[in-house]
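=== RUN LOG ===
request id: a7f3
mode: sequence -> structure
chains: 1
length: 168
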Amino acid sequence: MRIKLGSKVKDEVSGFVGIAENCAEYLYGCDRYGVQPPIDKDGKLPDDCVFDDMQLKVLRGKPVVEALPFPKQVVMLGDEVFDPITGMTGIAAGRCLYLNGCARIRMECPIAKDGEVEAQNYWTDELGLEIKTKGKIKIKDPVTLKPVVSGVPLKRTGGPGRAASQKW
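=== RESULT ===
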């Protein structure tokens, strides 16, 4: 995690400013932060927004809010996991840490034989999951991945934006 949770940050693209309240890492290397802006002039709490790691600039050296200690990582990205509450099985495709010390896992559920998604892909508490198969999906090192569009190597953006825009 490049930015300490609780830090005041600014999105260099949009100018959006707020506190980094969570950070999610994903199976194929995209790290994203949830940023909560302060209460507006009318006393209303604006919606938070999510930004790719490299778009954010820390505005202060020391966090404005201290994060609680994070739990030990039990589920690794790529593990096949079972959620006993819902009965769903899926792949741990993301892990998100929050200011309050909570850790949640994004479960990507398989597609059923009829082509319908078995259930919604969703976030759930890490400590409530059971590991069925360790490392079922192997993580590819994003540094060694060299996607190419029209013969030009691309820099990793954390999302499809750059590659998708060049295809059109």
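=== NOTES ===
The longest strand covers residues 88-98.
The longest helix spans residues 161-167.
=== END ===
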